[in-house]
Structures are given as C-alpha cells and as structure tokens.
C-alpha cells in the first residue's frame, strides 16, 4: 500500500497541469507546513526565526517545469535576489537550486551562463550554493557542470543520492575538488537498472557514502530524518576522531523540528532546507510520497480549507 501511495504522489508531482493550477491558487492543502511561503519576504521571516533558534539554513526558490529562456532568466534573477537578501539581512543561510529551473533542459550555454552569473554574485557576497540533484537522466550532466564550475568557483557544492549505483564513483570522482557534498537517499522514482530497489540497500549505501566522503577528508552534509543514519554517523565520527566541524546534519523545513533542535543542543550544526515560492506543488507531492503518514495531515488541512 505504501509503495502504491508513493508511486501515486511521484506521478502527481510530475503533472504539469496540476502544477500550473497550484501556482495560480497559492499554498494550499497544508503545503505551508513544508514550504516557508510564496515570496522572498516570507522566506526571510522563516529564516530569521530558524536562525534565532541556532539553526542554519539553505534556502531554495522552488521552480520546476521550466521550458523557456525567459522563465530560466526569471529564476536566475530570483536566485541572485536571494543571495543578495542573505547578505543584506545577514542571514545564516546558503542557497540551493535546481538546474532544470535555470535552463538545464534548454541548452548547455544557457545553464552555464546562468550558473556563472549566480555563482559570481554569490561569491561577491559570500554565499555558498548547492546544486540539488534531480532525476537520474540528469545526473551525469549535473556532475559534469559541477566539475566545470568548481574549477572557477569554490562556493559551490552538490548532492549525491545513495539509491543510485553510480554514487560511490561520483564521490571519488568529485573528491579531488575537496568538495562539500550533501548526501541524501534520493527522492525520485528510478528504475532498478540505475538504483537500488530495496530500502535496506539504499540505507546501507547511505552510511557507506557518508563514511567515504568523511574518510576522504571532505565535508559531509548528512541530509536525512532517519535516526538510524544519524546515530551511526555520530558514532562513526566519535570513533574516528572526526570533529563536528567536518560534517553537519540537514533536514527539510517542517520535518522533525524537535529533533533538529535536539541535535543543536548536542553541539551539532543543523541546516534546514527552506523552500519558498509559487512553484510549491511538485516539492509538496514528493514530501507526501516519502511519508504517507503526512497524508493524514494534508487531509486535515483540506478539510480546514
Ligand atoms: P526515510 O528513509 O524516508 O525515512 C527513514 C525514517 O526517518 C523514518 O522511518 C522515520 O523514522 C524518519 N522520518 C522520515 N521522514 C519523517 C517525517 N516526516 N517525520 C518524522 N520522521 C520521519 N533528494 C534528492 O533526490 N535530491 C536532493 O537534492 C535532495 N535534497 C535534500 C536536502 C535535504 C536537506 C534533505 C533532508 C533531503 C533532500 N532530499 C533530496 C530528499 C531525500 O532524498 C529523501 O527523499 C528524504 O530525505 C527522505 O529520506 P530520509 O533519509 O529522511 O529517510
């Protein structure tokens, strides 16, 4: 049953018509629990609140299904505005972005130029940028662009997904750049030809990849809500004399808030991924796919209107 629900929400997350409708009607169905707001101003308030509790942030302007150069330009400008706001308001925040929302599927020249503009401004104002990882067909292109950009910019990191067979090689491949990598399990529906179908294998690989990243001496963002993963990494770090400055935990906005604060109290750096913007629909559906228990919450939200 859980798998059916998961596949259903992943399918819905990719529906362009529903995405367009959702954009028009603003945050609905309890999406406000997972999305900080539909504007930059709303995200600022959420970030200030998190910072005041000792939590760092990476903010993400939601955007999917981009098909024109003009849309990619709007998203690029939004990213530049976001890094400027982080600096002006002295927020403890980084920026996360998705290449498809900046023109990855339109042309190589466009995505390179948009990323260079964002990274140049981010570097000027001292903001770190993480390229989120999307579905597997875009993974190689993402890694290649990351490698290219990393040669000119040191304020850039990317994401590795433990459900992909290729990820161990990718960590070794980008390791030479002493890269800050966020390691996640993976949020898309992938075939068994490229990804582990069983959760047990994804979890096992998750720990293996974080350990690999740390053993290379590189910084790891341990992005998971899973206590089993968190506890194993804490133990590994203690046993191997790896300081708290070599890794951080990351969780999504609105998920396991108590646990985030507990980890801060224990002396760990915790970064919250704060999505904002009108394009909230696909992101929201993927959160429901991950945890069907969230559906009960959403149904309550729908009843309340
Ligand atoms: P799961 O395997 O989903 O769950 C394991 C256990 O964690 C559960 O049994 C439960 O005990 C606990 N748990 C999980 N969710 C909840 C909850 N809502 N409430 C209470 N307990 C819960 N994916 C990508 O593909 N690309 C990205 O770029 C990307 N960036 C991310 C950035 C951040 C900061 C985070 C946290 C995740 C990101 N993801 C990304 C999503 C990721 O791939 C997973 O889909 C998502 O984190 C769910 O996996 P999990 O490791 O949290 O645990």
TrEMBL record:
<feature type="binding site">
    <location>
        <begin position="185"/>
        <end position="187"/>
    </location>
    <ligand>
        <name>FAD</name>
    </ligand>
</feature>
<dbReference type="GO" id="GO:0000166">
    <property type="term" value="F:nucleotide binding"/>
</dbReference>
<feature type="binding site">
    <location>
        <position position="199"/>
    </location>
    <ligand>
        <name>FAD</name>
    </ligand>
</feature>
<feature type="binding site">
    <location>
        <position position="286"/>
    </location>
    <ligand>
        <name>substrate</name>
    </ligand>
</feature>
<feature type="binding site">
    <location>
        <begin position="224"/>
        <end position="225"/>
    </location>
    <ligand>
        <name>FAD</name>
    </ligand>
</feature>
<protein>
    <recommendedName>
        <fullName>proline dehydrogenase</fullName>
        <ecNumber>1.5.5.2</ecNumber>
    </recommendedName>
</protein>
<keyword id="KW-0547">Nucleotide-binding</keyword>
<dbReference type="GO" id="GO:0004657">
    <property type="term" value="F:proline dehydrogenase activity"/>
</dbReference>
<feature type="binding site">
    <location>
        <position position="98"/>
    </location>
    <ligand>
        <name>substrate</name>
    </ligand>
</feature>
<dbReference type="InterPro" id="IPR029041">
    <property type="entry name" value="FAD-linked_oxidoreductase-like"/>
</dbReference>
<keyword id="KW-0560">Oxidoreductase</keyword>
<keyword id="KW-0642">Proline metabolism</keyword>
<dbReference type="InterPro" id="IPR002872">
    <property type="entry name" value="Proline_DH_dom"/>
</dbReference>
<feature type="binding site">
    <location>
        <position position="287"/>
    </location>
    <ligand>
        <name>substrate</name>
    </ligand>
</feature>
<dbReference type="Pfam" id="PF01619">
    <property type="entry name" value="Pro_dh"/>
</dbReference>
<feature type="domain" description="Proline dehydrogenase">
    <location>
        <begin position="45"/>
        <end position="298"/>
    </location>
</feature>
<dbReference type="GO" id="GO:0010133">
    <property type="term" value="P:L-proline catabolic process to L-glutamate"/>
</dbReference>
<feature type="binding site">
    <location>
        <position position="161"/>
    </location>
    <ligand>
        <name>FAD</name>
    </ligand>
</feature>
<dbReference type="InterPro" id="IPR015659">
    <property type="entry name" value="Proline_oxidase"/>
</dbReference>
<dbReference type="InterPro" id="IPR008219">
    <property type="entry name" value="PRODH_bac_arc"/>
</dbReference>
<comment type="pathway">
    <text>Amino-acid degradation; L-proline degradation into L-glutamate; L-glutamate from L-proline: step 1/2.</text>
</comment>
<keyword id="KW-0285">Flavoprotein</keyword>
<feature type="binding site">
    <location>
        <position position="133"/>
    </location>
    <ligand>
        <name>FAD</name>
    </ligand>
</feature>
<keyword id="KW-0274">FAD</keyword>
